[in-house]
Amino acid sequence: MTAGPAARTATRPGAGTGRKPVLAVVGATGAVGTVLLEILSQRADVWGEIRLVASPRSAGRRLAVRGEETEVLALSEEVFDGVDVAMFDVPDEVSARWAPIATSKGTVVVDNSAAFRMDPDVPLVVPEVNAHAARVRPRGIVATPNCTTLSMIVAVAALHAEFGLGELVVSSYQAASGAGKAGVDTLRAQLAAVAGSSLGTQPGDVRRAVGDALGPFPAPLALNVVPWAGSLREAGWSSEELKIRDESRKILGLPDLRVAATCVRVPVITTHSLSVHARFENEVTVGQAHEILASAPGVVLVDDPAEGEFPTPADAVGTDPTWVGRVRRSMDDPKALDFFVCGDNLRKGAALNTAQVAECVAAELSTP
Amino acid sequence: MTAGPAARTATRPGAGTGRKPVLAVVGATGAVGTVLLEILSQRADVWGEIRLVASPRSAGRRLAVRGEETEVLALSEEVFDGVDVAMFDVPDEVSARWAPIATSKGTVVVDNSAAFRMDPDVPLVVPEVNAHAARVRPRGIVATPNCTTLSMIVAVAALHAEFGLGELVVSSYQAASGAGKAGVDTLRAQLAAVAGSSLGTQPGDVRRAVGDALGPFPAPLALNVVPWAGSLREAGWSSEELKIRDESRKILGLPDLRVAATCVRVPVITTHSLSVHARFENEVTVGQAHEILASAPGVVLVDDPAEGEFPTPADAVGTDPTWVGRVRRSMDDPKALDFFVCGDNLRKGAALNTAQVAECVAAELSTP
């Protein structure tokens, strides 16, 4: 065992002391946590000690971060002693219980669950869009959005800043890893079961081949698309669809934004895509939109269909930016743009945004 | 060889004579033609002789229709002698050249290509929506819509009849077979290449595994989605996207209908799906929409997400109707509905609609 966290210093990094803040990664062994450790190893090193935390089941495992093997600690009150910033990548109910415990010890929590996103005393932050909001955190918690919102919001916000957004109609093409490791394992097993067959041409033939091996999905995903993600909310809407609406409104500061979203799972391992119809207050041109997107931080514009250039998940996966292409002005509405975006749901959609927000907080803690 | 077509009677079926009309299937050996022969074998038998026609390359093959082996004839002027109705399921340029030759012999052509769809003297017909239009055909040609339009239009038209359609925003999830047999073969080969692997998590790993074997698609389709179908038209729009707009307007008789479509190919063998945001002139309720869709001819309503009931391509494939589910009233617009539709692109999307239109013409030819 390494020295227990209680043995560590509880001193906060004083303004200008130069001491690097201590980070805890809660949920270090999960699908997002795994990507987060990679990202922490790749980005500029702003952290002092990095403490890895997970459920007691995973405690004692050793994981590499910044090239060092580090032992995973079991989640406990003491694990937050001396921690300046804690990133939470855990289920909603775990965040709901443990984030207040961490903040009671003076730790700033950057939470990637849905537990606090709509709390008016918790900012919902995407650094390219509203980094300033992370500085005002009455509960000591900063939330980061759902992966589907994150896969498009940086591009949407850049266009909003110029044209003034009034309405979004979006349809998603969501990857299996949005449902965690079980989602990926399920899709891979289903693909192995149908590859080399002549399935997919008779009613229910894929369903029979896949059998009960649906994993976290309500229908087969191989050779199929499934118009459902999340849980049932009011009037037939899914939780995933309402997150896109509620989170976009909060991040953009547009409480009356009109949003209609349809969320569909597709047989892709990682990287969510969205088809976006965005209506603005002002007239738009493709030329202006291209200029905005080409210079927007965190956005890569790939838009030359004559040359086969547009974003696809297979190209965007494993990368940081939001990829945008197929930018068109609606033929019947000079105020509307249609475009297609791809974003790695485990990177910008989760781990990367969490890391970026935590770095904003670290910079603030270290600045006089 | 069977008796040449020139030897057959050229008599037209006189009103009330009771003689069943003679049918030619032009393009009998293609992907849609193959499904058409199945459909002709399953539906009420309104036809006398059925003559199978294809390119000289396929002539001489024997195919089963209505349980009888029938020799495929090479496309020629003579092949239309004595033919009352000819179904064309061939590339645009073949239709453009040969349909007028057929009509010059008195044959009514039901054409599934894009060659004549937007000709003001050619009706564009979906029997559940505008069967009456098939009776007025100045050029002797009736066109049937593109598969993507057909996969949604029956459901959209039923709602339009009640609420008055003003705007459509649609995103498609299009199957590989929309690109013909080459599309299906390509997807199956790509799936075999990636199944059992850990691909789909690193930039370009799927692209490298698939190599040049892209078939008719501009990017890998396995473990991917591709936001492109058809050819490039003005201002970044694809031909497939403009077809949805132009054809919906013509079929519904709404020349000013606002339509924005984004077409995306997904790794599904057969059955197109669309996410539809439809804005009407009048306020809507989900209850009314359910009533309309549950009783609309050619539509099956499957909408109980609490029980995992919604349409998916794997369930709709190989069936005739348009499957509709996920019906929601937009939270921010009491005049808009969001829903998800699936339709077999080779059946209702092509062969079935062609057969239905041809049957309308046959009934008219046989009626005093």
UniProtKB/TrEMBL annotation, chains A, B:
The keyword Cell membrane does not apply. CDD domains: ASADH_C_bac_euk_like, VcASADH2_like_N. It catalyses: L-aspartate 4-semialdehyde + phosphate + NADP(+) = 4-phospho-L-aspartate + NADPH + H(+). Keywords: Amino-acid biosynthesis, Diaminopimelate biosynthesis, Lysine biosynthesis, Methionine biosynthesis, NADP, Oxidoreductase, Threonine biosynthesis. It is an enzyme of class 1 (oxidoreductase). Pathway: Amino-acid biosynthesis; L-lysine biosynthesis via DAP pathway; (S)-tetrahydrodipicolinate from L-aspartate: step 2/4; Amino-acid biosynthesis; L-threonine biosynthesis; L-threonine from L-aspartate: step 2/5; Amino-acid biosynthesis; L-methionine biosynthesis via de novo pathway; L-homoserine from L-aspartate: step 2/3. The active site is at 147 (acyl-thioester intermediate), 272 (proton acceptor). Residues 22-137 form the Semialdehyde dehydrogenase NAD-binding domain. GO terms for molecular function: aspartate-semialdehyde dehydrogenase activity; NAD binding; NADP binding; protein dimerization activity. GO terms for biological process: 'de novo' L-methionine biosynthetic process; diaminopimelate biosynthetic process; isoleucine biosynthetic process; lysine biosynthetic process via diaminopimelate; threonine biosynthetic process. Pfam families: Semialdhyde_dh, Semialdhyde_dhC. Substrate binds at residues 174, 265. Its EC number is 1.2.1.11. NADP(+) binds at residues 29-32, 57-58, 177-178, 345. InterPro entries: Asp_semialdehyde_DH, Asp_semialdehyde_DH_beta, NAD(P)-bd_dom_sf, Semialdehyde_DH_NAD-bd, Semialdhyde_DH_dimer_dom. Phosphate binds at residue 117. Belongs to the aspartate-semialdehyde dehydrogenase family. Homodimer. Catalyzes the NADPH-dependent formation of L-aspartate-semialdehyde (L-ASA) by the reductive dephosphorylation of L-aspartyl-4-phosphate. HAMAP family: ASADH (MF_02121). This is Aspartate-semialdehyde dehydrogenase. It comes from Streptomyces telluris.
